[in-house]
Amino acid sequence: xxxxxxxxxxxxxxxxxxxxxxxxxxxxxxxxxxxxxxxxxxxxxxxxxxxxxxxxxxxxxxxxxxxxxxxxxxxxxxxxxxxxxxxxxxxxxxxxxxxxxxxxxxxxxxxxxxxxxxxxxxxxxxxxxxxxxxxxxxxxxxxxxxxxxxxxxxxxxxxxxxxxxxxxxxxxxxxxxxxxxxxxxxxxxxxxxxxxxxxxxxxxxxxxxxxxxxxxxxxxxxxxxxxxxxxxxxxxxxxxxxxxxxxxxxxxxxxxxxxxxxxxxxxxxxxxxxxxxxxxxxxxxxxxxxxxxxxxxxxxxxxxxxxxxxxxxxxxxxxxxxxxxxxxxxxxx
Length: 333
Ligand code: F6P
Fold this sequence. Notes:
The chain has 333 residues and is of the alpha/beta class. It contains 11 helices and 11 strands.
């Protein structure tokens, strides 16, 4: 296959801190290889509409430290249809784009595969705060989101402590509990409720809080992954069953914002460079993954078949530290 001379870059789905760092690395490396870059605005919907602009080295100066994505992002309904994908593929041909680098989560990768099936070479870069992609141990944005959530919970702890309340905090993550689990450990939550695990409120939360109270503890943090849902209902039950005043905070979109952490900037830069290498190699459509500290590319179809379970070691660690009863009823006694 011929090597790419002009590439398009897009970001799709939920934005993730670090996307800009990847864009910068791609544009810099491409320009050194005399590959020209087109920025595609608003993901696949921008591709369908030919909403593109020349992206030069100067355009990406200083963007690494900025959250969000300079390319804007969207979830395109039209691109879910075959006609939409065909339109996007025709735009690529018309604009002379011989490779697209698409940053985003699973939905973005599925879109990339659809485009690849219409003859456009695509390289996917995993970027989502959820870190829920089976093919890769790490997705761009996860570390920053964990830090943001942790810092927010630290603040909630101050007020929760003052009022001797239970703070129930809902953390993003779509159907996965990775963000909630890591944040829960980092913020020292008393209990963490995850969609991957069966929940018994009495055992996993109420009893833990009661035991804490016996030890003299009058405030608690309970982290609930959004995939579990019903944070308000759980909070009401916790209040009724423990007798402690309980407040709910849904962290929401602040978790997607903010300057990316060093880990996100460096991972994004490495993945951006690998994406250029993958396009240069002239192979078919690929995705960049991170496994055992290494960044490399793999087949997109294979990548999409992979599933990610919860990090069991972290889950056990969470229980051992946070006196929850999840595993077998003995942890944290
Ligand atoms: O995938 C990232 C994410 O922030 C999820 O954690 C959340 O469920 C979803 O996106 C929210 O999406 P939207 O921006 O469409 O509301």
